[in-house]
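Regression check, 4'-deoxy-4'-aminopyridoxal-5'-phosphate case 357:
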Amino acid sequence: MMTNRVLNFAAGPAAIPEAVLKQAQHELLNWRDTGMSILEVGHRTAVFQDYLAEIQAELRQLLTIPTNYHILFMPGGGQGQFFSVPMNLIGRTGQADYLDTGIWSHKAALQAKPYGQVNIVASNATNPFVMPKTTEWQCAKDAAYFYYCPNETISGLMLYDIPQVAVPLIADMSSCILMKPFTVADYGLIFSVSQKMLGTSGISLVIVREELLGEALPITPDIFNYQKQAKESSCLNSPPIYAIYLMELVVKWTLQQGGLVAMEECNQAKAKLLYDYIDNSQFYYNKIDPVYRSLMNITFTTNDEAKDTAFWQTAAKQGLMGLKGHKLLGGLRASCYNTISIGDVKRLIAFMQDFAQ
Ligand code: PMP
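Current build output:
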């Protein structure tokens, strides 16, 4: 039945494992013997509340989430978190540190401004392909938190080292959350959109340390209030059930593949293949310092806009989709999240070889 599927290298909404889509298709009309679709199940029913507990347990297993962290399914996607984070967390001191490493952290800092004082620790605004040096960071004296985006999806710039800061660390892991194992306890709060590595759009997964809750600004609307959502199991209003459901299927699939250890091994191998090919090609170029090259969003260019356009257009005709770079930076980008296999990357490289010729 699943014929004519293309290879989807888009940054998000991104490819979803075929096994997940098949399962969703299989149980669309009758979910878990309820006689109805998951799309029709009420979020306050016992069956759905049990399901929420199940996905939380699976997430705890996959990401090794300690018990003093809440797992929330929050509305408003990634950009909803750009204002939810300051609304909930900046109140303690009235100011926060932001590391500006690209378009997404830059936008987050801008959206925090109405809620407190935003201190830009360092910025690469003049060149999105370099990472500001740690020695140049200037942290505020009394920040409520330090915010950063470890993987800037648009430029393909990744900070592998965890910032060593004295205040709670907040990370937008939207394009790297399932890339490799990491220690949740190093962070005060982690969030990720659902449409890249966790299924389909509609929610942000938020993992937040219990002790950070309780100081939301009074203007915080209830549905964006972490503490109130935690109390209501993320069902303060009608949640996007299908996005939660697809996340559960993806989390289960990831566990079945061997969890984050297996994902990292595969992701390292895929990125090495692609970067090695680019570096040796003399036709394609990646502009990022090798130390900060993203394992997930691999950007490249022929250094010729017309050739870049011809590249993604020709690729699309051959079933390799989503390779056009983001409109703000141009160029090309192959997003290689967990659904993309080594074989898929080899297929992309074969196309790149043909096109270069
Ligand atoms: N953060 C990062 C790292 C992103 O790549 C994106 C783009 N999807 C966002 C936030 C914004 O997400 P959304 O479109 O769900 O608001």
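Comparison notes: The chain has a mean pLDDT of 97. The two ends are 36 Å apart (CA to CA). No diff flagged against the previous build.
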